Amino acid sequence: MPGVSIISLGEACRDSLAGLMAEQRDEWIAELDWDLGEINAALLDAVRDGTISGSAAVDGGRVVGFGFYTNEPDRCLLGDAYVTHGHRSDGLYAALIDDLLRCAGQSRPLRRVENHTIAIDGDAADSVLLARGFVTHDREYLVRDAVKEEGAPSGHMRALIRSWDEADFARASEVIYLAYRGTADSRMNCQYRTRDGCSDLLDALTNTVWCGRFDPETTRVAVDVETGRLCGVSIATRISEGTVHLGQVSVLPVYQGQGIGRALVRATVDRAARNGLRRCSLAVSKANRVASGLYRTLGFEMGRAFRVYTRDSA
Questions:
Q1: HEC profile for 271-310?
Q2: For the residues 303-310, what does the mean pLDDT come to?
Q3: d(CA 307, CA 310)
Q4: To the nearest whole number, what is the mean pLDDT of the chain?
Q5: What is the pLDDT of residues 207-216, one digit of tens each?
Q6: Which residues are CB-contacts of 22 (< 8 A; sequence separation ≥ 6)?
Q7: Distance between CA atoms of 191 and 201, rounded to whole angstroms?
């Protein structure tokens, strides 16, 4: 990497960093229909305020790569590591990852590290992270048009499908925890292992822009018509002007296999279409064959295969 240096993200030129983020935004829109505009604005503010740490690769004063991380109570979460087109063969991705891990480990031992980003340069992510002791978990980014399915049932006999209410938060968090406890997803995302973790995950979906802006009008919940128990959720976020992302689809285990998940997803897609959106997306673990098969019967198709990376200390 002749002429390239790795510096703290906070020391990087803000305008140059913003320019690189604009390139990244264009690439994500083209490949995933995901607009990172609000996320990158929030990241720039967090870097300025010192609430997020990271690393930047600089060549002749120009930022040509960047990455960031957050140290949470139970894990270190590696955010995106992005390198501009002209430098992707220069080993910068590896240099950024090494510096992120070094910096993150200065304050405390890295017992658990996770990376959930859909890497644009997937080959580099695979080779670099595997060489550093990470294990992989295969995921699929699925997409479909947001159109109402004519003749498809609009509800469910056992469950009322309705819109989101702020009072649903605690019960929805419990649904997510019980639905994912002990699953393959809990092995790749330790938030699913505890009630507090699931609450933090749901808070990130409904109160931040890190996975798109929460769309309560499109979000659907399922309520048992006899008991009033909230038994399923489909959390929707806007990731671009015309696309809604189903960031979390969960059904209580005792209600699974009864068509409630199918009804929730159908209702979410239908509401997205009625709200003028043109596309729906979601991500599913390849190991979750039941959910993956369900989404395909509902018209979702492969948009992009990607991997989640995790590493535990010995």
A1: HHHHCCCCEEEEEEECCCHHHHHHHHHCCCEEEEEEEEEE
A2: 97
A3: 10
A4: 95
A5: 999 999 999 9
A6: 40
A7: 7
Q: What is the DSSP string of 1-54?
A: -TTEEEEEGGGS-HHHHHHHHHHHHHHHHHHH----HHHHHHHHHHHHHTSSEE
- Smallest Cα–Cα separation from 104: which of 131, 138, 81? 81
**Residue positions counted in the chain:** 314
Torsion of CA 76, 77, 79, 81, to 10 degrees: 50
Task: Give residue-wise pLDDT tens across range 154-171.
Answer: 568 889 999 999 999 999
Q: Classify residue 126 as exposed, middle or buried by CB count within 10 Å of its CB (0-12, 13-18, 19+).
A: middle
Q: What is the pTM of this model?
A: 0.94
Contact between 169 and 206 (Cβ < 8 Å): yes
Residues 6+ positions from 183 with CB-CB distance below 8 Å: 192, 288
Fold exhibited by the domain 4-133: Aminopeptidase (3.40.630)
Distance between CA atoms of residues 152 and 94, nearest Å: 49
Mode of pairing for the β-strands spanning 76-83 and 112-115: parallel
Using CA atoms in the order 71, 113, 214, 27, what is the torsion angle rounded to 10 degrees?
Answer: 110
Which CATH architecture does the domain made up of 142-306 adopt? 3-Layer(aba) Sandwich (3.40)
> Tell me: the pLDDT tens digits for 200-254?
999 999 999 999 999 999 999 999 999 999 999 999 999 999 999 999 999 999 9
Q: Tell me whether strands 301-312 and 135-145 are parallel, antiparallel or unpaired.
A: antiparallel
Round to whole Å and give the CA distance between 5 and 166: 47
Q: What are the domain boundaries of the chain? A: 4-133, 142-306
- In the predicted model, is pLDDT for residue 153 greater than 80? no
Residues 35-51 have a mean pLDDT of 95
Any residues with CB less than 8 A from the CB of 79 and at least 6 apart, and which?
52, 54, 67, 68, 69, 70, 117
**Same CATH fold, 142-306 and 4-133?**
yes
Beta carbons within 10 angstroms of residue 285's beta carbon: 19
